[in-house]
Amino acid sequence: MPAITFEQEFILNEHRIYTTRPLRTLFTLELLSKEFFQDDFAKLMQGITEAENQVAAVSHFAKRYGMFFANQFYMLAAYDMIWDGKHTELHFDVTKEYDAYTIAMFINPNDFRYVKETERKDVIMKILQKQGYEIVQYLRKTTSISPLVIWESFFVSIVKMYEKLLENPSTASQAMDDIEILESTEAWKSFSTKSLFYEYTKGRNPAVLVNQPIRRSCCMSMDIPGQGACGYCPKTNL
Question: Which distant-in-sequence residues (6+ apart) come within 8 Å of 67 by Cβ?
Fold first, then answer.
């Protein structure tokens, strides 16, 4: 198992992922798969965020979890590493940021592993299936949220992440290779007939997508106290 460097720890923290044990565990990613928890999850998130409605509250969680999802691709492109822990080992707890309550994520740094070039595509496919598609399905059972809202929140974080990686000559080539995999139909074949990521980017460079209103769905961040519409919102064109 690779040791996490100070630089990698900083990147994780930027994505609100911490390698210390939380003071408490409010829930784990694995708990989202349980029907009894799904019944109460939207109420829980609404209580934490004080959102105007439960759909906005779950959408807010999707944006936070999307930072973890995107971080997997960041670590893969920058360091040939992924977090390979079980869903029971991704912990969530309440935290306060900018005078508002939200969710932070906690993982075990010993669960990172190196990825061989020969398995890279398979690893990306597994991340899309196990940490993307399955989580989207779980969240859809908690409230009447559209899968498009969730996926596009994931993609916002991924685009931001790749924009940074492509600016760096040391990571640009690998990042572009990984983008090509994500935009291929093959990578999504276990649950989709097309690349959902390509449907979002249309093959455009992340540098021209950052903070542009290219979402087709609204993440409802304006329904969370202390937040406004994000820079990707289609409503900014209205």
Answer: 15, 16, 17, 105, 157
